[in-house]
Write a structure and sequence with these properties.
alpha/beta; five-stranded mixed β-sheet; binds zinc ion
């Protein structure tokens, strides 16, 4: 949940302005608010895009686009011009809408269990720079590495200012999205991530001691936002509806997109949503880093494949375990044992996904993360496992593969840019 203070801090305006905006927004219908957010996502994905094209993709009247675009053009968030590549064509050039933002950039931080990345990007997603390092086992050291990377990226772009920082973390966050509550695979508990990365920028607007806002998000939720953007970039239709993102790598995380928006739950426990990776699927089963036994991710994650392949006798002991991609390579080379391992993983993945579909009633699943490298072998047993469930027989469902990598850093950037756009929309409304 974002507080009034957060919104004010990000926008660089007073809390009174934000209150005013919220009160004003109450008089505007919810659908128009949602449509504006969807429209901006569409502009980002397809810019420069004409008003006519936007209206068609969003399935709204052109006058609605005009109404939505007007305050955003006035506030400077959007620009409308004939882009260079269109000017070259013969005849009257079409006019395209695009987001402005050359003077600022966003920082995305992906804290992974094994590797971490820090990247800088423009509002349209264009990457300006990126660094990565092995994630130190100590959270303080890890965050000081991140901080140093952020400072280096900032120093390399002296003519631009940091708008905000988004951090993707491998575990649940608090509802305010400032702290990582627990990262089982790193053994980190209650880490004040936002506070550790708080930096000031003297050139930043006005209030709140020039602090650059930091938003900390669960990696599966961030990956779901990344997948939504990827789908918008690839599709001509803006309608994304509901889907569940299952991200399987070292562990398993689940993100929910409902009505095109990510769902974080309600109330103070909001950040604990989607921890399906730690639902028990085997009573008294393998012990898990979370402290319980028989968790789904111990049977269906990419890293669980290595222990399954090696045989349980070697579990816990060795540093010579195969990487997931090595098992996939052996399976592709025709090794029966590797193929059987991946099929087994697919079956377990399907059992868990069947549970999710049964429980949530959302029948569109996107699987992302390293597990996707083995999709060729996993796909069939996964589908068979879902087809065996009651809901699998009664309902129409689909399971697609998403990105194997890239959702970590991409997701972190998506989190921060989404927040920025929401803030800018609120600001534009307050002026209009
Ligand atoms: Zn667990």
């Amino acid at each position: 949940m974002t507080t009034l203070y957060d919104v004010a801090r990000i926008a660089g305006v007073s809390t009174a302005t934000v209150s005013h905006v919220i009160n004003k927004r109450r008089s505007i219908s919810a659908s128009s608010d949602e449509t504006t957010r969807t429209m901006l996502r569409m502009v980002r994905a397809a810019q420069p895009i004409s008003r006519a094209d936007l209206a068609r993709r969003l399935e709204v009247h052109r006058s609605t686009i005009t109404e939505m675009v007007k305050p955003l053009l006035a506030s400077g968030l959007l620009r409308e011009a004939a882009p260079e590549q269109m000017r070259a064509r013969v005849g009257r050039p079409p006019i395209g809408l695009s987001l402005r933002g050359e003077s600022t950039f966003f920082i995305g931080v992906n804290i992974g269990v094994r590797r971490s990345q820090v990247g800088a990007a423009l509002v349209d997603g264009e990457m300006l720079g990126e660094e990565s390092f092995d994630t130190p086992s100590d959270s303080d050291i890890a965050l000081s590495h991140v901080r140093a990377s952020v400072e280096r990226l900032r120093a390399s772009m002296p003519d631009r200012t940091i708008s905000a920082i988004g951090v993707s973390v491998p575990g649940p966050t608090d509802a305010e999205r400032t702290r990582l509550l627990f990262a089982p695979h790193l053994g980190w508990r209650d880490v004040a991530v936002a506070a550790a990365l708080r930096i000031t920028d003297p050139s930043r607007a006005r209030t709140f001691r020039h602090e650059v806002p930091v938003i900390v998000e669960n990696d599966a939720t961030a990956a779901a936002m990344y997948e939504r953007r990827r789908r918008l970039c690839n599709n001509t239709n803006a309608e994304l509806g509901d889907f569940v993102l299952v991200r399987a790598g070292t562990g398993i995380g689940v993100g929910l997109v409902i009505g095109g928006d990510v769902y974080r739950g309600t109330g103070s426990e909001g950040g604990l949503l989607g921890e399906f990776g730690h639902m028990t699927i085997v009573a008294g089963g393998k012990s898990c880093a979370c402290g319980n036994r028989g968790c789904w991710e111990r049977y269906a994650s990419a890293s669980s494949a290595a222990t399954l392949y090696a045989g349980e006798r070697r579990h816990g002991g060795s540093g010579s375990r195969l990487r997931f991609v090595d098992i996939v390579a052996r399976a592709e080379a025709g090794e029966t044992r590797a193929q059987a391992t991946l099929e087994r993983i697919g079956d377990y993945l399907g059992i868990g996904i069947g549970n999710i579909i049964s429980g949530l009633g959302i029948a569109r699943i996107v699987v992302s993360g390293r597990i996707v490298f083995g999709w060729k072998f996993i796909k069939k047993p996964l589908h068979q496992a879902v087809a065996r469930t009651m809901v699998g027989r009664l309902a129409t469902w689909s399971i697609e593969s998403g990105e194997p990598t890239g959702a970590g850093l991409g997701g972190a950037l998506e989190v921060v840019i989404e927040q920025y756009l929401a803030t800018m929309v609120a600001q534009a409304r307050s002026i209009a």
